[in-house]
Amino acid sequence: MKFKSAIKPYRAAAGGWGSLEATTRFVIDSKHALKNLRNLMRMNKARGFDCPGCAWGDDNKSTFSFCENGAKAVTWEATRRFIDRQFFAQHSVSKLYAQSDYFLEYQGRLTEPLRYNARTDHYEPISWDDALALIAQHIHGMDNPNQLELYTSGRASNEASYIYQLFGRMVGTNNFPDCSNMCHEASGSGLKRSIGVGKGTIQLDDFDKANAIFVFGQNPGTNHPRMLHSLRHAAENGAQIVTFNTLRERGLERFADPQKPLEVITPLAGSISTHYYQPNLGGDMAAVRGMAKALLETHRECLARGDKGIFDEWFIAEHTHGIDDWFAEIDKTAWEHITRQSGLSEQQLRDAAAIWQQAERVICTWAMGITQHKHSLNTVREIVNLQLLGGHLGKPGAGLCPVRGHSNVQGNRTMGIDEKPSAALLDSLSAHFGFKAPREKGHNTVEALAAMLRDEVKVLIALGGNLAAAAPDSPRTEEALRRCGLTVHISTKLNRSHLVPGRDGLILPTLGRTEADIQATGRQFITVEDSFSMVHASEGIGQPIADTQRSETAIVAGIADAVLGKDKLNWQAFADDYNLIRDRIAATIPGFQNFNQQCEKPGGFYLGNAAAQLRFSTPSGKAEFSAAALPASLFGDLDAPFVLQTLRSHDQYNTTIYGLDDRYRGVYGQREVLFIHPDDLAGLGLQEGDLVDIETVWNDGITRKVSGFKIVSYNIPRGNLAAYYPETNPLVPLASVGDGTGTPTSKSVPVKISRSALKTNNRIA
Ligand SMILES: Nc1nc2c(c(=O)[nH]1)N[C@H]1C(S)=C(S)[C@@H](COP(=O)(O)OP(=O)(O)OC[C@H]3O[C@@H](n4cnc5c(=O)[nH]c(N)nc54)[C@H](O)[C@@H]3O)O[C@H]1N2
Ligand SMILES: Nc1nc2c(c(=O)[nH]1)N[C@H]1C(S)=C(S)[C@@H](COP(=O)(O)OP(=O)(O)OC[C@H]3O[C@@H](n4cnc5c(=O)[nH]c(N)nc54)[C@H](O)[C@@H]3O)O[C@H]1N2
Ligand SMILES: [Mo]
Prior knowledge:
Blueprint: E1 6-7, E2 14-15, H1 16-29, H2 33-42, H3 68-77, E3 82-83, H4 85-90, H5 93-97, H6 101-106, E4 109-110, E5 114-117, E6 122-125, H7 128-140, E7 148-152, H8 158-171, H9 185-195, H10 206-209, E8 212-216, H11 220-223, H12 225-236, E9 240-244, E10 254-256, H13 261-265, E11 270-271, E12 275-277, H14 284-304, H15 313-319, E13 320-321, H16 323-332, H17 335-342, H18 346-358, E14 362-366, H19 368-371, H20 376-389, E15 399-402, H21 409-414, H22 423-433, H23 445-453, E16 459-463, H24 467-470, H25 474-482, E17 486-491, E18 504-509, E19 517-519, E20 522-524, E21 526-529, E22 534-538, H26 552-564, H27 571-576, H28 578-588, H29 595-598, E23 605-606, E24 623-624, E25 642-647, E26 652-653, E27 656-657, E28 667-668, E29 673-676, H30 678-683, E30 691-696, E31 705-713, E32 720-724, E33 749-755
Parallel strand pairs: 2-10, 3-4, 7-16, 8-9, 8-14, 9-12, 13-24, 14-15, 16-17, 17-18, 25-32, 29-31
Antiparallel strand pairs: 1-28, 5-6, 5-18, 10-11, 19-20, 21-22, 22-23, 25-33, 26-27, 30-31, 30-33
Helix pairs in contact: 1-3, 7-26, 8-26, 9-20, 14-17, 14-18, 14-20, 23-25
Bound molecules: ligand MGD (2 copies) and molybdenum atom (MO).
């Protein structure tokens, strides 16, 4: 593979021709064009499979509901390229380790179970029976159940994740580290504390009814392209779209709908954001605090004049608790503190507040720009505070919308993939299945890695994902994985995690979402939950590439059967007929009554959300205002000239690299780039295109550095930098996590930069 690298600004709108062209090119390149196109046609329709791309909802209105990046996700999975025993006989693990993430996945689908042979440094074929027996042998050899870690990536279905958590708890552990720990943990935990449920409160059609939508720290043009349709409709209906994003993101500026031919043909793109603010990294809590301060001032002025205030007094009195403490905290927060931390002026924040004030119905959405900081939990809660002031909860066109990442990450949590499960869940499982579910809190992702580094982990099973590349502090993460007794990866494609096996290691090849899943009782479907708490069925249609692949559900059932036997539960029956799993879910998880019948509803069914009905399961029984202080500074005593965020390009799905372009940001054929403000560039005596090294400023004596990143000047606030994940994961210290969330602070890494000794950075060729 050869890639031509270039930096040239993208001037067209997001979506539109550029997107159609890229999709077609991608579909054709995947060497299976016809099948791919057929797959696309079925995506997100009433029948067919759920798009594995993201967790945005489906309106079921458009006939051909797809987006460029969903198309990439499908074609990447549905490729006819594959790797088998010859490939692994040819390539040692150390040789493969030297390859890029792009190269690894590009090789194609994994087809048969493999076991790592440390003597030869090669993976070798192993039968399914032997692989399952090996897992059982390792688990039986543990001294205590907490030597087992069960990682989950958010693509796993409800059915697979339900029996996975049941298996883990029957073994006796709550060690369920998952991708959510690195992702929306702050949303789940923050919302839970504020409104009693850790999920968004709105439904998809609320976007059509909103007067103002505030989009915080999110790049929907790349990561949730179908959200652009909703924003676009809302804008057409006259809604104000107020964006807070450190970078100027093309997808948030203009959008041409590829599903509206006229817009594609003419360059007439609709604009998305009516207002665009660029706060400093980590500056959003200060920004929202500033808006609240401005609003409170107006409110008091009204009252002083004898007028009605501007807040929803009835809602506040009836449904909330703790407002006085928050007001006291706002009064204590100085404007100087707010503007310094947010990087926005008092006037900008007063303007944003005025838009909020004028709107009768407000939605706030957010993603990783909010959740991957040290003070993310309090930032999420500050956004909730703002919404509570206006009673923007539990009415049409208003509410809270954390936009989830992986297509079923929300469903995984609903199914009990949670290292800090509620007593209600444990009681329900214990009563129904007749066992004592463990009560001790388990490990989140960073805690699991720390336990591995302490040699406390005998077995790691990973239901999907790519922990080695997704987790922070790559050298330490890789070392952690190597210290496990046995690592088991249930995967579709080869990735970095497979190349840092434990002392013993297995790769188990699995079917993907798009493929037909035939079991003893016939064709199976699975279910997923989107960001709007809609649960729906998903049924793959593609022919699996090898009959030695197994479904995730069958693999998990097989592991459970090998480890726990048939005495308590007939795990094999679950694998034969997924309806039986859904019956158990119906019996133990709230909201899933008549689950199997409910699945027949086209478009799925709504799980409901107590907070949206103004029922709050919080200590006070009301929505809780949070009165957290604004952090005095974001990095304590650390004196770093720059703050770096690690983010996604347009051609990747997390650690899966589809290609080397980031079209909307004008980057082509390369990934090792560093976005910087032109004045900072000049201040350092550097020029566009120079190569630099980036080094973390931290306090544990460890050098964390990546080298040879090409400088690209960009519309970003001074002192702020951006570069792609996972290339920059080595820079995020394992110990640098969010307060109360444990989430790696991937969007605020204190760094310094220097001219690189490297002459070229074109390492992927
Ligand atoms: N095609 C594609 N789709 C995906 C994914 C993918 O990799 N590729 N990943 C999926 C997953 S798991 C997730 S979690 C989501 C991620 O979706 P996003 O959250 O959109 O992902 P990021 O690329 O991390 O982008 C973070 C955005 O927030 C901005 N930002 C960063 N820090 C701050 C800040 O402090 N304040 C503000 N206001 N803005 C900030 C960045 O400039 C960027 O626009 O997407 C999901 N969908
Ligand atoms: N620095 C930095 N680090 C981050 C982030 C960041 O913004 N910056 N974002 C974080 C976020 S938001 C997330 S969600 C995590 C993502 O962390 P993960 O979910 O662990 O990572 P993915 O890259 O999504 O996993 C890709 C792998 O999943 C496997 N796979 C794909 N489809 C399937 C399937 O259908 N079944 C199974 N069993 N396996 C499958 C393939 O083998 C593929 O290699 O990364 C986090 N890490
Ligand atoms: Mo995520």
